[in-house]
């Protein structure tokens, strides 16, 4: 396998995530403590936790967990679910297992870097940009123009990281139909689904297509990244069989405690998602008011969904310098646009990622205001 490039986001986080005083670019929603999560357990979940044996688990995932995951879809059964150690393992194995060197993939930009660099290590890849001047809208015509006779997969992420964009239902359904008509696998990263405020969530790809892959995880909308539980839902069992055999070479199986805790969380999913949507709803006016104080420095548009967004910085020194000085001098962490640089399309150089899913950003915003002053 070719050597993958440095994962820019994770390299940056390795330096700053746990050293910065204010983490204002978090991609996950507010988490729970273990005691808070266990307090949400039903009788079955509590008994599973208290009697848990710390042995190996089933490669595909705890059957009860797979059943609960399947219940989050309209048209999926437990046998349509394969669990992974977080979403990253699922992305890595899907791209490495389902693509061949003779294939071609289309991916949207800006994106979570793994969605681009992992397939680039396997086959030819084309990018289709979400553009700020178009409101980060999904351009299905551009996707169609990028397709080739050997296009095997189209990879998308909605609500999008880092822009927070969610396409119209019309555009989304058109993209699904396009992939089905061309015999192309749609890989749909849906890890922020459930954090939309003023619109319903899009139908999940696997509910719309028998060949599409829907990726999700406990980390983002549910706010439980420490569990390291993700999954792919797909009604094509030959695909899941391939991915299971690939998983034998990586994590083999998931953590037994994490599976039970994920089961407890998913049974309380309405509570978790409602709470995290409230946090985002409470935070957005605070961020809007902050950026409005500095119209010569910032352009801010709230996200359509999810808990991250991609404001613009207008200061003369540029966004890279602003982010570097902020973290080094004020201990406030943001992600500059270079983290989202694409090898495939022109991407913005004047933006930065902000996270709006954590409680009580007021102290961090005050520190940022003091630094600006």
Automatic annotation (TrEMBL):
<protein>
    <submittedName>
        <fullName>Aspartate/methionine/tyrosine aminotransferase</fullName>
    </submittedName>
</protein>
<dbReference type="InterPro" id="IPR015421">
    <property type="entry name" value="PyrdxlP-dep_Trfase_major"/>
</dbReference>
<keyword id="KW-0808">Transferase</keyword>
<dbReference type="InterPro" id="IPR015422">
    <property type="entry name" value="PyrdxlP-dep_Trfase_small"/>
</dbReference>
<dbReference type="Pfam" id="PF00155">
    <property type="entry name" value="Aminotran_1_2"/>
</dbReference>
<dbReference type="GO" id="GO:0008483">
    <property type="term" value="F:transaminase activity"/>
</dbReference>
<dbReference type="InterPro" id="IPR004839">
    <property type="entry name" value="Aminotransferase_I/II_large"/>
</dbReference>
<dbReference type="InterPro" id="IPR015424">
    <property type="entry name" value="PyrdxlP-dep_Trfase"/>
</dbReference>
<dbReference type="GO" id="GO:0030170">
    <property type="term" value="F:pyridoxal phosphate binding"/>
</dbReference>
<feature type="domain" description="Aminotransferase class I/classII large">
    <location>
        <begin position="54"/>
        <end position="356"/>
    </location>
</feature>
<keyword id="KW-0032">Aminotransferase</keyword>
């Amino acid at each position: 396998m070719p050597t993958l490039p440095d994962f820019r986001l994770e390299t940056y986080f390795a330096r700053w995530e746990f050293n910065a005083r204010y983490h204002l670019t978090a991609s996950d929603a507010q988490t729970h403590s273990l005691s808070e999560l266990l307090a949400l357990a039903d009788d079955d979940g509590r008994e599973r936790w208290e009697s848990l044996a710390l042995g190996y688990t089933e490669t595909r995932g705890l059957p009860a967990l797979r059943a609960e995951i399947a219940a989050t879809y309209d048209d999926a059964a437990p046998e349509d679910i394969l669990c992974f150690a977080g979403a990253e393992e699922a992305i890595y194995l899907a791209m490495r297992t389902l693509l061949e060197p003779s294939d071609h993939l289309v991916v949207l930009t800006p994106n979570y870097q793994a969605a681009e660099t992992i397939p680039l290590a396997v086959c030819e890849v084309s990018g289709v940009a979400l553009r700020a001047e178009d409101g980060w809208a999904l351009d299905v015509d551009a996707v169609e123009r990028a397709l080739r006779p050997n296009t095997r997969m189209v990879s998308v992420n909605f609500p999008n990281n880092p822009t927070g964009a969610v396409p119209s239902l019309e555009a989304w359904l058109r993209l699904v139909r396009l992939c089905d008509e061309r015999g192309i696998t749609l890989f749909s990263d849906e890890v922020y689904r459930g954090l939309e405020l003023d619109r319903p969530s899009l139908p999940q790809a696997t509910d719309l297509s028998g060949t599409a892959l829907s990726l999700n995880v406990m980390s983002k909308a549910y706010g439980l990244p420490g569990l390291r539980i993700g999954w792919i839902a797909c009604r094509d069992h030959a695909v899941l069989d391939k991915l299971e055999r690939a998983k034998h070479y990586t994590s083999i199986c998931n953590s037994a405690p994490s599976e039970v805790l994920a089961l407890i969380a998913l049974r309380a999913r309405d509570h978790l998602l409602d709470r995290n949507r409230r946090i985002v709803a409470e935070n957005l006016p605070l961020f809007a008011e902050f950026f409005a104080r500095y119209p010569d420095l910032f352009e801010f548009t709230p996200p359509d969904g999810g808990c991250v967004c991609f404001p613009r910085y207008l200061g003369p020194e540029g966004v890279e310098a602003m982010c570097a000085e902020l973290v080094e001098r004020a201990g406030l962490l943001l992600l500059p646009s270079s983290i989202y640089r694409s090898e495939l399309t022109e991407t913005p150089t004047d933006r930065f990622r902000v996270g709006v899913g954590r409680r009580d950003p007021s102290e961090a915003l005050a520190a940022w205001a003091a630094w600006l002053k």
